[in-house]
Design brief:
single chain; alpha/beta; Spore Coat Polysaccharide Biosynthesis Protein SpsA, Chain A; 9-stranded mixed beta sheet; 9 strands; glycosyltransferase activity; transferase; glycosyltransferase; Nucleotide-diphossugar_trans
């Protein structure tokens, strides 16, 4: 028998309702959107729901409504982009917890149950899971360093291997206690992905605001996971460099909104610990795997591209500030 406190927490977790919000914008990803919805449908309890938000694409909205009568399907009520699409999903949903799943990701069995368990402690405000890449072609490019899984919206080497407190989870698979939105508001329209431009960090900025409130924690549970499709177009050096560059720009915006201490806390450890280890492993294993040396070079390219994006965004913001004075 479990202690009474654990039994109460488990019962609360089982009864907690979850609204799964899936945002989509591209006709080309319609098949992946349906797969995402079906992967969740199989896990829904009677108190759960799926909310699909289509980002300013009337044709896709009509198609989704026609084939997903069991889900709530609506258009983005705000400006174009992922942030307002998610905010629309929050407004339309009714669950105690709002979970976000990318339209090109599929929840593994037990995903919703794992999220439900994560929110058993009252202090948990945001929870995330592992995001495993599903590579088109079956395997990653030989040059791709696993420390840069975030480039394709997936988990990466250096994340905790057991359930732990983190600054922010990966946006492709995260959930938020509904009451938190009343505390801190929604996702910021000043940041986040719009269309195919590889920017992001809206979940980072949001989680910094959440964690700044006393009593709120953000957790990551690697035992639950989703599979995130990585198309061939995102498996090129060109995309890798572009994504890193725009990540640097996004991180600069987060730093301006929330301060560099909070905005770059995880990145400092990543640069000081994760990337040096990646370079060591690349060099140490070069005899067994010559491609490791190539991955080491790509690590340096990724770091340089990210720093360049941060610097360029800083300079641009500085010019705007000067022009307005």
């Amino acid at each position: 028998m479990y202690p009474v406190e654990e039994q109460v927490a488990t019962a609360a977790a089982v009864s907690r309702s979850i609204s799964v919000v899936i945002c989509s914008y591209a006709d080309s990803r319609f098949g992946e959107l349906l797969d995402a919805c079906e992967s969740v449908r199989a896990q829904l309890s009677p108190v759960d729901e799926v909310v699909v938000v289509i980002d300013h694409n009337d044709g896709l909205l009509a198609r989704a409504r026609a084939v997903l009568p069991w889900a709530r399907v609506a258009g983005n009520e705000g400006t174009r982009g992922l942030s307002d699409a998610r905010n629309t999903g929050v407004r339309l949903s009714r669950g105690d917890v709002v979970a976000f799943l990318d339209d090109d990701a599929a929840a593994r069995p037990g995903w919703l149950a794992g999220l439900r368990e994560s929110f058993a402690p009252d202090e948990v405000a945001v929870a995330g899971t592992a995001v495993e890449p599903r590579w088109e072609g079956g395997r990653p490019p030989s040059w791709f360093p696993p420390e840069f899984g975030w480039v394709v919206g997936c988990s990466y080497r250096g994340l905790p291997e057991v359930k732990a407190t983190v600054r922010n989870p990966i946006g492709a698979s995260m959930a938020v206690r509904r009451s938190v939105f009343g505390q801190v508001g929604g996702f910021s329209g000043a940041i986040g992905r719009v269309g195919t431009t590889p920017v992001g960090c809206e979940e980072t900025e949001f989680c910094i605001r959440v964690a700044a409130r006393d009593g709120n924690t953000v957790v990551f549970d690697p035992t639950s996971a989703v599979d995130h499709f990585v198309p061939a177009v995102r498996q090129t050096i060109r995309y890798f460099v572009s994504r890193c560059y725009h990540e640097g720009r996004s991180k600069r915006i987060v730093s301006l909104l929330q301060g560099s201490r909070a905005g770059l806390a995880s990145e400092r450890r990543y640069v000081k610990v994760t990337l040096p280890l990646a370079l060591y492993l690349a060099v140490a294993g070069v005899r067994r795997n010559p491609a490791g040396l190539l991955r080491g070079g790509v690590v340096l390219i990724g770091l340089g591209s990210t720093v360049l994006g941060y610097v360029v965004e800083s300079l641009q913001r500085g010019r705007l500030t000067s022009a307005n004075h």
